[in-house]
Amino acid sequence: MAKFDANSTLKRLQNRYRLVVMNDDTYEEVVTFKLSRLSVYVTLSTIFVLLTGLTVALIVFTPLRLYIPGYGDINATRELRELKMRTDSLEQAVKFKDQYLDNIKNVLQGDGTVKLDTTALDIPKPETIHE
What is the pTM of this model? Predict the structure, then answer.
């Protein structure tokens, strides 16, 4: 079983590497970077922390937080639900009113056809009282 040597691990993290970007046609060096594993790790960790912080700040300090379930104001949620119910009932009332006005217009213009109620009624015959 290999023993863990903190000194050799730190040395490996501090080893220097060169990253060269070259033009494929002319083999000319475009950019050269001198990196170590530690610097790459620190850079990526810093970018991750900054992006996470910006995302959290964007959600906390803007109205986007209202889209997260359970994070918004309870009163606002209740008011929104009540407004939705009112809007639905108003839409239904307007639909019925339009239908009523269309029927009135058709009757006044004589355009409408009268639909007769052809439902058969089962009316019992009145009983006669025999004395």
Answer: 0.49
